[in-house]
Specification:
Blueprint (H helix, E strand, L loop, with lengths): L1 E6 L8 H15 L3 E6 L13 H5 L8 H10 L2 E5 L9 H8 L2 H5 L7 E8 L5 H13 L3 E9 L4 H24 L4 H20 L5 H10 L5
Parallel strand pairs: 1-2, 1-3, 3-4, 4-5
Helix pairs in contact: 1-7
Length: 223
């Protein structure tokens, strides 16, 4: 079993969010998962140019580190996303990774994967940022088991508590994967999304050939 953690803070080793990620991956490793951390702030990931190649050919034409990162995520069983709160949002580095992901969204390529999210904030605004990351996981077809956030204004003890919660959630992620845990509400929302999105595909079937072929193979639309 493989669990991959995505770091997106430009602060590197000074990042408080990194402390949560380290604990989460330690927990997953203690539960006997193979773990890997990827710091996308150190990688070269360009902006999406909306060329439609991913829809037409199933691949991104931009040659940078995005394909390397996404290849690791697609090979993983568990995904942990992390970002500090930057103006009530994720960092630009993580948002750019999300923006390059229409293939993962449109073909639901995280189906069968589990994940959760981590954030730190100077103030108490953590839930909104966690929701952004968890919604990405769910929109790509995966399941999320929750998230851990820490308001740094609450002092060192709050960070220590968040670190311990992150470690326990890392363990629980492995258990969710092993148990093939069911999340009926998330699965119902994904089914509803697919039901709506099939009409978008059918409207673009002459151009989005890869997406349409994939959906037909999955049985989500008829030939």
């Amino acid at each position: 079993m493989k669990v991959v953690g995505i770091l997106s803070s430009p602060r590197g080793k000074k990042s408080n969010t990194l402390k949560l990620m380290d604990a989460a991956l330690e927990g997953a490793a203690e539960a006997e998962a193979e773990v890997e951390a990827i710091d996308i702030a150190k990688l070269k990931i360009k902006y999406c140019i909306a060329c439609d190649s991913c829809h037409e050919k199933g691949e991104c034409t931009i040659k940078d580190d995005f394909n390397l990162v996404m290849g690791k995520l697609l090979a993983a069983d568990g995904i942990i996303l992390s970002s500090p709160n930057y103006i009530t949002n994720v960092t630009a580095q993580l948002k750019t990774l999300f923006d390059r992901s229409p293939l993962m969204v449109h073909e639901q390529l995280f189906e069968g994967k589990y994940g959760f999210s981590l954030t730190t904030a100077g103030s108490g605004e953590v839930d909104f940022v966690l929701d952004i990351m968890n919604n990405y996981m769910k929109t790509c077809g995966g399941n999320t088991i929750g998230g851990v956030g820490c308001a740094m204004s609450q002092g060192p003890s709050a960070l220590e508590t968040a670190i311990e919660k992150s470690r326990e959630m890392g363990k629980d992620l492995v258990k969710a994967i092993n148990d093939k845990r069911q999340y009926p509400e998330q699965e119902a929302a994904q089914k509803t999304w697919r039901e709506r999105f099939k009409y978008v595909l059918l409207a673009n079937k002459d151009r989005w050939t890869h997406n349409c072929d994939y959906w037909m193979e999955k049985g989500w639309i008829q030939k």
